[in-house]
Structures are given as structure tokens and as C-alpha cells.
């Protein structure tokens, strides 16, 4: 995997090989160190260091007042975080799995995105909610959901989904420093499966700037999070057949970097969008609509979406992989837009 | 080994409800148990001695409960072995909690409803979920999700606490239809922090729903001890806030769990409304077969609980009273082993699901979109 973190404020070139979960842990430690307002809380994040170890060692290092276990109640976690944010702290909550965010949706939909608006900026919520999401590792029922479109559909909430360790660190620090609420979804599949050089020390990657993973002239493949590596594999295969594929990693869904998307579409005229979320009304549909509205005259082929299906993510291990897009399905879509 | 009774009997609340005391995480479950000794219903002591002879169920019931506990334990033990050899999926063990699950579920008939969580395989087996199907569920085969028509049991609930309001609705429906059937739902100490738990208790009280709510306080919610979960030291008292009876019972004494549950079921059948039963027990095993509890507790803590093993407790009682012989016990072992191996053969023979099955059962009538998506899967993956 190519490491192009493009950090904006790297003070030093020293790097360290890290997994994504280690890079997230590093970002959280830096945030706690730099800003006493930062507090980390959630289920099992304290002594245990989180079920994926994202907060490993943080309670021992920063104390049980800054890093603490809450009772098992997601509405309470997000609701309490809102109160902490109103009163000047920087809450960084962990929801154990994105599929267990649902009890908190009342707080998210009713309040999290509305506070600045309903107080005309007298109050704002510098809150981050982190949640592991997505499939590919044979988790039990409801542990593999991809609910990012629900959040992206909620006014006033930003949505960030990193695809590499270096991006995860820089984006998470930017999210924590952002004055508004940010949902930060972490692909379970990527936590430990890929390692790369991650700059040491503090740096941020601005929210709202997509990353061109690989440049190409024939097809634009737009994706994010756990699907980036899948898209890249398909792009590599296509390249071997002489097709130039430009892979764009959105990094953030809100704000959306339409500039990078449109520049690429104007160049290639062919678009494949890849997500593992359910088909109907997914964020892929928003991207597709944006391109249709703003660049339809450049299109040489219909847009193709490669997505999950209109069924719950299957808990049936032996057929689970049918649901989640794989490089073969993406490669087929690339051939399809080329052949049109 | 840790002598729980010697540990803090004090009810001094922790400094902050949200802040755990990592210096002494092992005391949590044991201390909860010690706190509860005086206040919880117990019919036989950990060594099998009878403490409340007048409330003992009939011998035939005691023997039935013993058989059911042995059967539940055998499943738990075999599941571990099968997991290690790749013949079972990730499984949340309940070994050590059999009295809490078997004694409660045994008070139901198949006309009653059962809403189990992932922890409650022992309860579901007791209620009547067939072994082969239960194996299939934990192997994540779709066969495990299709519940038998003659039972009113739902697939194990994975999201915490969501089952509680469902039980209220099912119970209310039974009442509206004029039956005497009840609904039983399980939850953990951790789950009792969720809003759904509290809303359900309040609904059930307000609407006089024939529900029996089992709250298994096993000391832990993954890594969080009950005393960090809540400042309350007696979870059964939560019932008071909703105007319904709350009962606290020794969750490792199957005769006690059976007795109090049977009484609660009777009250519900008679139209006297819901009951909350806290079974005080302990999660001796890891959270799941894939969990490493050494990150948050010591082995010494769990060892104190082995001495309260619910199966050995009833066994000691039955042997001492002459209701069980070593030979009869060996015969039970043979019986449950044979039953399990036969079920395993049945489960092994279930056909593997086909790829397009991921789209089955979304609607009664698939939408045009699902029809297209199915065609796509058939074209890409084959039938
Ligand atoms: C809504 C929701 N939040 C979080 C989880 C993740 N989770 C699974 S089990 C568990 C702990 C549950 O503890 P408890 O209720 O005491 O039940 P036990 O596991 O001890 O039986 C957590 C946090 C979940 N499954 N659902
Ligand atoms: Mg528990």
C-alpha cells in the first residue's frame, strides 16, 4: 500500500511503522497530552484499553478521570458527551461497534448536529465519536454494519473514514481539534491488516480533502475506508491490462471534496463508486448524484456503483463474503464502464 | 483463594460511579456476592446443605433440573472444544451460570415466550431449543436462525437490552388474546444500564404485562465490573422504582432460581403483573471464547467461584439425600453425551447455504431492487 499521508504540519520526518489501531492510539495519546480538555470514554476503554485496543495504556498514562469506562448505554455516552462539550470539554467517545450506535441515534439526530444551529453559535460541540465499522472479518450479527450514510444525512455532523494508518492519525487529530461534531469510523478489517510508516509527533490532515491514491486517465474509482484496498487491487489488475485507473480515497464524506472528484471525472469520463454499505440510499448514491449534476457532459459511460445489498449484513460466515465488494466485482465494473 | 465473605462487606460507594478502581478489579464479583449473602434467597448452601427445607421443589423437579444443568454444561464444554478445532463459531460461554439459566427457563412451558441474549444458550436449551439447531446457530448457519414453529423463542439477541421491550409487547399480546402465557427476557448487569431495560420495566408495570425479567448479575460486562457499572449494590431494588416486585436470588442455587421464577411466572399468569429477578452469579469464563480476561482480572478471583459451582452444589445435595447415585450420575453422563453427538451429526449434515441466501427473507415479497440484486449474485457467484 502506497504511503502518501501528505500531512500538513509535519515537524519532523521521523516515522515509525504502525498498524492503524496503533496510529489511532498514538493520535489519542497526543491529543490527551496536548489539550487537558480532551476526555476519552466509552465501554471497556479504560482498564481493558478497548475491545480493539485502540485506547490501550491510555488510562494508565493519563488517569481514570481523563480516560474512563462508562456504564453500558450508548445514548448516555453520546448524551453525556454533548453536555461535556457544551461545558467546554473535548469529549472523544468510543462506541464499541458502529452497529451499536443505534441506541444513541436519538441524541445524535435530535441534538449532536443541531447545537450550533439552535443556539446561533453561542454553543458548539467539539465532540468526536469513534466507532469501528464494516465487515470482512467474520464478526457476529450486527458487528459489521456500515451506517455512515445515516450520519452523513444528519445536518451539522462531519463524517471521517480513514483508510491508512498515517491518514487515521492525522485525520483523528484534525477531528479532535475541529470545533464541530465529527463521526470517525474505523474499518475493522484495516485495524491490523496493514502497516505503514507513520510520522511521529503531531500533525493533522485537513477534513474535506480527498486523496488521489493512484493517478490514471481512463477510469475514476471513488471510495473510502475499508474499500480503498479492495479498489486498489482491482485498479492494479486493470492496469496490467493497460487501463489507467485513478483511485480516489474520499477520507471525509462530510465535508465532501467535490473538487477532486470532478477534476478526475472531467479527465476520465468514467466512474465506478465502491462502498460496502447497503445499496439503496447509500453515500455512493450521493456521489453519483453530484457527478450527474455537475459533470454529466464529461461522462462517456453510465456511473456504476459497486456496493453491499439491500439486506442486513449477513451473520452467516460461510456466505458473508458475497455481501462485501471484492476486487473481482470492482474489476468487473471497471471493464463495464470501459466497454460502454 | 479469595474468600469473598472476608472481602468488603461495606456498602461504601465508589468515589465516582464512572471511574473504575483498577487497583482491585478482582474484588468486584466476589464483593457483590458477599454483599448479597444476607439478602438473597438461597435454598441450598454451596456445599449442598439445605438451608430452607420447606421451600424445596419436589424430588422429581430437582432431578430434572440436575439433568438439564448437566446437559447445558455439556454443551458449553463441547462448544469450547469444537471452537478450537474450527467446528464452532465465536461462542459466549456460560459455564458456571447454569443455575441462573436452567432454573429460570425451566419454569416456562413452550407456550410462553423466551427472549434470550447471546449468553443464554443454557436457558434456550432448557426451554426446548433443539440441540442441533443451537449448534447450527453458533456455527452461524442460517438454519440456526429459523426458530421452530412450536416454540416462541427468538434468536439470541446481540444488541444489548433491545429484547426487554419486546418481551413486554409479547406478554401484552398474550393478555389481549386472553391466554395465561407469559414472556421471559434475560439481560446482564451491564445491559441493565441501557435505557431499554428501564423503559421495559416501567411499561410492564404500567400496563400490567405478564413478564418475568431475569437480570443475570455475573459480575462483569466484558471488562467492566458491576460496581463500576452502577453505584447500586442491589440490582433487584431497581424494580421498586417501577412499582413492581424485585427478587434477589443466589444465582448458583438452581433450586432457589427455579422456586422464585416459578412463583413469578405464577403471579404473571394470574394477572398480577411483572417481576424482576436478579440472579447473583459469576462469569467464571471469558466474555467469549476469543476474549483474554487476564487484561482486566486475575485467575484467583474466578477460583473463589469454582467452589460455588452450581452443578456440583445440586449434585452434592442429591447424593447426600440419596436421590442420586454415582451409577445414575454416570448414566446421565452417557445419555447427554450420546444426545449431543447425535445432534452434532444432524448439524453436520445441514447443507451449506448458497450465496444468494444473503438476500432471502428481507421482505415477504422481494422488491424489484432485491430481485435484480439476486440475479446479479447468481450471475457472479453461481447458485
Ligand atoms: C447496544 C450494544 N452495545 C454494546 C455491545 C457490545 N457488548 C457486547 S456484550 C457487552 C457486555 C454485556 O455485559 P452484560 O450485560 O453484563 O452481559 P454478560 O456478557 O455479562 O452476559 C458489550 C458491551 C452490544 N452488543 N450492544
Ligand atoms: Mg454481566
Automatic annotation (TrEMBL), chain A:
Cofactor needs: thiamine diphosphate
Domain of life: Bacteria
InterPro entries xrefs: THDP-binding (IPR029061), Transketo_C/PFOR_II (IPR009014), Transketolase-like_Pyr-bd (IPR005475), Transketolase_C (IPR033248)
Residue ranges constituting the Transketolase-like pyrimidine-binding domain according to the UniProt record: 18-193
SMART domains from the UniProt entry: Transket_pyr
CDD domains reported in the protein's UniProt record: TPP_PYR_E1-PDHc-beta_like
Keyword Transport included in the entry's annotation: no
Gene Ontology MF: a single term: oxidoreductase activity
Name of the protein this chain belongs to: Transketolase, central region
Keywords, alphabetical: Oxidoreductase, Thiamine pyrophosphate
Subunit annotation: Heterotetramer of two alpha and two beta chains. Directly associated with ODBA in the E1 complex.
Pfam hit, one: Transket_pyr
Organism expressing this protein natively: Deinococcus phoenicis
Automatic annotation (TrEMBL), chain B:
InterPro entries membership: Alpha-ketoacid_DH_E1_comp (IPR050771), DH_E1 (IPR001017), PdhA/BkdA (IPR017596), THDP-binding (IPR029061)
GO molecular function: pyruvate dehydrogenase (acetyl-transferring) activity
Biased composition (Low complexity): 13-27
Name under which the protein is recorded: Pyruvate dehydrogenase E1 component subunit alpha
Top EC group: oxidoreductase
Gene Ontology annotations of biological process type: branched-chain amino acid catabolic process
Feature: compositional bias, Basic residues: 1-12
Residues covered by the Dehydrogenase E1 component domain: 67-355
NCBIfam families given in the database record: PDH_E1_alph_x
Segments for region (Disordered): 1-27
Names of the cofactor(s): thiamine diphosphate
A Pfam family reported for this protein in Swiss-Prot or TrEMBL: E1_dh
Record-linked Gene3D superfamilies: 3.40.50.970
EC number of this enzyme: 1.2.4.1
CDD domains for this protein: TPP_E1_PDC_ADC_BCADC
Function: The pyruvate dehydrogenase complex catalyzes the overall conversion of pyruvate to acetyl-CoA and CO(2). It contains multiple copies of three enzymatic components: pyruvate dehydrogenase (E1), dihydrolipoamide acetyltransferase (E2) and lipoamide dehydrogenase (E3).
Assigned keywords, A-Z: Oxidoreductase, Pyruvate, Thiamine pyrophosphate
Subunit-structure text: Heterodimer of an alpha and a beta chain.
Origin: domain of life: Bacteria
Catalyzed reactions per annotation: N(6)-[(R)-lipoyl]-L-lysyl-[protein] + pyruvate + H(+) = N(6)-[(R)-S(8)-acetyldihydrolipoyl]-L-lysyl-[protein] + CO2
